[in-house]
Amino acid sequence: MENTIAQKLDALLKLQEIDSSLDEIRKTRGDLPEEVRDLEDEIIGFETRIGKFKSEIAALNSEIDNFKGAQKDGEKLIKKYKDQQMNVRNNREYDAITKEIELQELDMQLADKKINEAKARIRLIEDDANRAESTLNERNEDLKAKKGELSLITSESEAEEKTLLGDREKHTKKIEERLLKSYQKIRDNSMNGLAVVHVSRGACGGCFSIVPPQRQADIRERKKLIVCEHCGRILADVESVEPVHQRR
Ligand SMILES: [Zn+2]
User: Fold this and answer.
1) Each residue of 174-231: pLDDT tens digit?
2) Chain centroid to CA 208: how far?
3) Average pLDDT, the chain
4) In angstroms, what is the span from residue 167 Cα to ligand 1's centroid?
């Protein structure tokens, strides 16, 4: 069953009324929803960074453990060499073992150096991690505050919003897809969210451009969809001389 133009216009007007009310509600929340989202993104970023720092530190610690293990092996080896030195048969053997011990000690010094470098690197990363951690804590505090603020504002209008969204769904079903799409498009492009307006005091209720009398007569007939020549908004009807106050 095809709706008449007048019915379509009435459905659009009703939808506009609902959407304007929803806009009002969303306006009371201001930038809070966006600020909450931004903070949440930022917090995820910090958590990722801190996780990276931690795994870098863990890798360096296991590097240190490996060097320490090698040093222990080296100590055992040196002890073994020194025992062997007690039982050498000649100077040549003695010198050869001394050389081995020296090489082993050199290795251990090198390991010490590497361990110290790794420890210094860990301290630097820990500094970065601590800074990130304290910023993260601040952001979490901010988020908690903003979420509290938002939920307070939201709770005041939650029931109303739910009802409006329910109504909205009901009314959109009465409007054909194509018309709904152009309604949405006009709304998205309009600063005040108005897609369907009345002609009020001879002018478009959206952009206040003059609507010629003949066009006003056509609009009043409600036999076809007429849009404002200047802003493209749908002109649903002409307000009577005694002006009915429009909702915004
Ligand atoms: Zn207009």
Assistant:
1) 899 999 999 999 999 999 999 999 999 999 999 999 999 999 999 999 999 999 999 9
2) 38
3) 94
4) 27
Tokens at residue 49, please?
A: 């960074």
- State whether the Cα torsion 139-143-146-149 is positive or negative: negative
Q: How far is ligand 1, taken at its centre, from the CA of residue 97, in Å? A: 100
Euclidean distance between CA atoms 194 and 248, whole angstroms: 9
Residue 214 Cα, ligand 1 centroid: separation in angstroms? Answer: 16
Q: How far is the CA of 190 from the centre of ligand 1 (A)?
A: 10
Quote the CA–CA distance of 3 and 97 in Å, as a whole number: 105
Q: Which of 40, 37, 32, 35 is nearest to 153 (CA)?
A: 32
Dist. CA 223 → ligand 1 center (Å): 19
The pairing of beta strand 203-204 with beta strand 234-238? unpaired
Q: Where are the alpha helices (DSSP H) in the chain?
A: 5-29, 32-86, 91-172, 177-188, 213-221
Per-residue pLDDT at 121 exceeds 80: yes
- Asked if 205 contacts 223 with a C-beta cutoff of 8 angstroms, the reply is no
Centre of ligand 1 from the C-alpha of residue 234, in Å: 8
Task: Tell me the pTM.
Answer: 0.65
CA of 187 from ligand 1 middle (Å) equals 12
43-84: pLDDT as tens digits: 999 999 999 999 999 999 999 999 999 999 999 999 999 999
**Of the candidates 46, 240, 231, 28, which has an alpha carbon nearest to the alpha carbon of residue 133?**
46
Q: Euclidean distance between the first and final Cα of the chain, in Å? A: 33
